[in-house]
Specification:
The protein is an all-alpha fold. Helices cover 55% and strands 1% of the residues. The protein has helices spanning 6-10, 14-34, 37-63, 67-92, 118-129, 162-171, 173-180, 192-223, 231-257, 275-285, 293-298, 305-310, 319-332, 342-355, 397-408, and strands at 369-370, 373-374. Helix 9 (231-257) packs across helix 14. The longest helix has 32 residues, at 192-223. The radius of gyration is 23 Å and the shape is globular.
Length: 418
């Protein structure tokens, strides 16, 4: 099931983990010391480009009702919304640009273009998800209350709907993110928790109302003043742009948290957790996908989810360079660096969601050695850790996993050449 002893699972000693933490702290300090004009220019240009795209999309929707112009304007607007949510809203609200002391680009003042109220999201995401990453019953992102993504979630008959639930989640992801932060289940409770839930619900309704008026009343009405467009055409365009943005955001996020190798943990991991152990849990609980400059930008640089979880408040434009150093540390400490192509990682998330719609008795791998659920117990039958006589390196997690895989599914011997 989930990992109960992260150091034992990682095959690292206390000294190893402490040294890993020191080396990761050094990376953080290097980046912080080098932040400056180039980074400020990057975020300001990104904001300007995003606003220009949104304006261009709105103008195209108003200028012509022809199908080609409608689709061009709609997709341009969707692109602007994606950039605003992924590279701007998410990262600005993480405090990645607070060092600039610019009140417009600050985590406490940015209100993003989606249903979730920014202050609710900051609390739920920054102070809960990133602190308790993939810890069962503490991190709401493990399944988003609706999906079964680990065998540690006992199977229930409604889990048969895992695939359609995930499809609905993709289409309505902005609603899921907004509702996740409200705690509606506590709405009718007495006491402080109920008071907070009711206040958040009022604030959420206020934010949704503003979004609704903006996208489905004000802009369509403004566009209707043009003889080349109609109220209905713009209303439909805004709805499609919002759905495209939701589908894309969902795909990026699940690729960072649900593929094979994104491990889950129990609350016992947190007992006396050191800085190094927190770093290690972030590395083991996250997954990347490979991307070029365009895909990195459109994903908000969350293709580097491992690096983002290690350093959530470092600017997103630095994560690609940081990833080279993090990967080198993984090699040094014999830790897996979970990554793959975007289609591969996305496909693995759907495979896991499909597989876990079924009861455990229909699944082949054990609960401690499945692609989506691993624990230190998967190594119970492996010989004690040894040191390579040639390199002097002690066997680490990456080597141990390879040894287990070879034991379970040995490769056929190569045919001898006659």
């Amino acid at each position: 099931m989930a990992i109960t002893d992260v150091s034992a699972f990682a095959h690292l000693s206390d000294a190893d983990i402490e040294n890993l933490g020191v080396e990761l702290d050094a990376i953080r300090l290097d980046i912080e010391d080098s932040l400056g004009t180039r980074d400020a220019r990057y975020i300001r240009r990104t904001i300007a480009a995003q606003r220009a795209l949104e304006l261009a999309g709105r103008v195209m929707l108003a200028a012509s009702a022809k199908r080609k112009a409608w689709w061009t304007g709609t997709l341009t607007l969707a692109l602007a919304k994606i950039i605003e949510n992924m590279e701007l809203g998410h990262n600005v609200m993480h405090g990645q640009w607070n060092w600039m002391n610019d009140p417009e680009i600050h985590s406490t003042t940015w209100e993003w273009d989606m249903n979730a109220a920014s202050k609710h999201w900051r609390n739920a995401h920054n102070f809960q998800h990133h602190k308790y990453t993939n810890i069962l019953d503490m991190d709401d992102d493990v399944g988003y209350f609706i999906l079964r993504v680990t065998r540690d979630q006992p199977w229930q008959p409604y889990n048969l709907g895992n695939l359609p639930y995930n499809l609905v989640l993709a289409f309505a992801f902005e609603w899921a993110i907004g509702l996740q932060t409200v705690d509606l289940e506590k709405y009718f409770e007495d006491g402080p928790d109920g008071d907070i839930a009711r206040e958040r619900t009022r604030e959420f309704v206020t934010k949704v109302s503003r979004q609704f008026v903006k996208d489905y009343v004000a802009f369509p009405a403004l566009t209707a003043l043009s003889p080349a467009a109609t109220y209905t055409s713009t209303l439909k365009a805004n709805a499609v742009a919002n759905v495209v943005r939701s589908i894309w955001a969902h795909a990026v996020i699940v690729c960072g948290h649900f593929p094979d190798g994104a491990d889950k943990f129990t609350t016992t991991d947190m007992a006396g957790e050191t800085r190094g152990e927190w770093y290690l849990r972030q590395m083991l609980g996250s997954a990347n996908f490979e991307a070029g400059p365009v895909l990195r930008f459109l994903s908000g640089n969350l293709c580097h989810q491992i690096e983002h979880h290690l350093f959530p408040d470092l600017p997103s434009n630095r994560l690609h360079a940081i990833s080279t150093r993090v990967r080198a540390l993984c090699d040094k400490y014999d830790l897996p660096y979970t990554t793959g192509s975007f289609p591969t990682q996305y496909g693995k998330t759907w495979r896991t969601i499909a597989k876990l719609s079924l009861p455990n008795k229909f699944l082949r791998a054990t609960a401690d050695d499945a692609p989506e659920t691993r624990s230190e117990r998967m190594f119970a039958h492996l010989a004690p850790a040894t040191t390579d006589p040639k390199t002097g390196r002690r066997r680490g997690l990456k080597t141990a996993i390879a040894a287990i895989r070879q034991t379970v599914s040995p490769r056929p011997a190569a045919a001898e050449t006659p």
